[in-house]
Amino acid sequence: MGTPEFAVTTLKALVEEGYRVVAVVTQPDKPVGRHGSVLQPSPVKQYALEKGLPVLQPVKMKDPDFLAELRSYGADLQVVVAFRMLPEVVWAMPRYGTFNVHAALLPQYRGAAPINWAVINGETTTGVTTFMLDHQIDTGRILRQMPFDIPDDADVEYVYDGLMHLGARLCLDTIEQIIASDGRPEARPQEDMPDLKPAPKIFKETCMIDWHLTAKRVYDFVRGLSPVPGAWTTLIDNEGAESVLKIYRTAKTDLPAEEAPGTLLVMQKRLYIACADKLLEICELQMAGKKRMDAQAFLNGQKNIENYFAR
Question: Which of 86, 229, 266, 279 is deepest in the core (most CB within 10 A)?
Answer without folding.
Answer: 279
